[in-house]
């Protein structure tokens, strides 16, 4: 769907926007050049949208379908196309195999559809946490950690196939998240399970094309409730370290036990050049998969401060940014617009921090002022600068407002019908 009238939509907010931008400059005491520099960095920032987040997600208790959802991959790309036209920061899609399995003859159409909306293909995701139709062996007791080598081989073959699929669309990385683990003490030998995962991952690693990377995601619990083989960043890190330079640790914000200091994990991984990137979401209790920034925007800001510092120290630092959320009760497209906005705001706030002054306070053990510097940036209303970056790129001043005003969901329902179910979740 090609969106119309974005410029005239923006025009009605022009005066209000310019005043807000001016106030930001005056209140932060920043020059036009400094502002331009921040806008420039925001303009190049792209967050990948996972194909499974475009339909309504469910919980283990049920799923309440939305309307006008994408029924196939082409329609999923069209949905990302809508997001990207509105915010100019959603220029990539992350596929999940087998939910998005491509046949040779549809590759061309899919690539053209994506190119039309300037959408790239981000990391491809494997799936060995559920059994697929026609699959000969079951993952009920694990995949890469399974005691039976035949099951492990099946999972390894699947991951190689995911890499093959990714190559067809131009992806450059494979994300592996394993649900492997145990729900009861005694079920699994910890050491042997980890050893089997390591050996299996090595087979997949050796299959990676030269310019590919492997992202190893971790998660403390669920679906297994007693132990997970790759349960924390340390386990992911030691696997990545053992596999080699193409393997890195992927941080999913919801995959931590409550109160974990995620920003510190980020700094440690950057220091060791093992940070792959992020799965953004928010949570209160566990892997809640809520809208980014809905609950802990200050934590998100602190994480971005580490990232900005990391990127300043090492301009070649290349990270993968992706949303990984489930939209149970909101319109998925509206929810993603809110998530991307929250990410951009946290990034913009982190760009407002005076890192030189912060360093001085640290060297002087001036704890009070160190905190003050961070909070001062966090408490700045950076919405105008994020909007400015978006407008300069041809996006909408207020994407959500445009989405509602131009009745985009209603148009999708008209085209696709009320009861289409997106493949996957
Ligand atoms: Mn994830």
TrEMBL record:
Signal peptide: none annotated. It comes from the Bacteria. Transmembrane segments: none annotated. GO terms for molecular function: isomerase activity. InterPro entries: L-rhamnose_isomerase (IPR050337), Xyl_isomerase-like_sf (IPR036237), Xyl_isomerase-like_TIM-brl (IPR013022). Keywords: Isomerase, Manganese, Metal-binding. This is L-rhamnose catabolism isomerase.
């Amino acid at each position: 769907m090609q969106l119309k009238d974005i410029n005239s939509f923006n025009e009605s907010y022009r005066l209000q926007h310019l005043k807000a931008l001016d106030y930001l400059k005056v209140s932060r005491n920043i020059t036009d050049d400094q502002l331009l520099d921040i806008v420039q960095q925001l303009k190049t920032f792209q967050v990948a949208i996972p194909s499974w987040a475009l339909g309504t997600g469910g919980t283990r208790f049920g799923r309440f379908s939305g309307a006008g959802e994408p029924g196939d991959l082409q329609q999923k790309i069209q949905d990302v196309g809508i997001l990207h036209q509105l915010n100019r920061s959603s220029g990539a899609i992350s596929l999940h195999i087998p939910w998005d399995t491509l046949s040779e003859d549809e590759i061309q159409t899919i690539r053209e559809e994506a190119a039309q909306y300037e959408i790239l293909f981000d990391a491809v995701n494997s799936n060995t946490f559920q059994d697929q139709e026609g699959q000969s062996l079951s993952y009920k007791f694990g995949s890469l950690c399974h005691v039976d080598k035949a099951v492990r081989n099946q999972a390894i073959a699947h991951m190689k196939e995911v890499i093959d699929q990714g190559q067809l669309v131009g992806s450059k990385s494979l994300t592996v998240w394993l649900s492997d683990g145990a729900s009861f003490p005694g079920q699994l030998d910890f050491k042997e399970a980890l050893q089997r995962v390591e050996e299996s991952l090595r087979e997949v690693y050796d299959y990676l094309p030269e310019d590919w990377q492997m992202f190893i995601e971790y998660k403390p619990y669920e679906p297994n409730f007693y132990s997970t083989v790759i349960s924390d960043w340390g386990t992911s890190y030691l696997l990545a370290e053992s596999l080699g330079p193409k393997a890195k640790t992927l941080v999913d914000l919801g995959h931590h036990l409550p109160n974990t200091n995620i920003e510190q994990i980020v700094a440690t991984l950057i220091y060791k050049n093992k940070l792959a990137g992020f799965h953004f979401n928010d949570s209160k209790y566990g892997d809640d998969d809520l809208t980014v920034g809905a609950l802990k925007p200050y934590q998100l800001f602190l994480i971005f401060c580490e990232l900005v510092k990391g990127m300043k120290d090492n301009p070649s630092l290349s990270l993968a940014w992706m949303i990984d959320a489930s939209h149970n009760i909101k319109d998925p497209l509206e929810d993603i617009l809110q998530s991307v906005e929250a990410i951009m705001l946290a990034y913009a706030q982190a760009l407002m921090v005076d890192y030189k002054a912060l360093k001085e306070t640290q060297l002087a053990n001036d704890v009070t002022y160190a905190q003050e510097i961070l909070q001062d940036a966090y408490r700045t209303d950076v919405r105008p600068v994020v909007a400015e970056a978006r407008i300069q790129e041809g996006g909408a001043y207020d994407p959500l407002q445009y989405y509602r005003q131009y009745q985009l969901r209603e148009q999708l329902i008209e085209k696709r019908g009320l009861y289409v179910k997106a493949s996957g979740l």
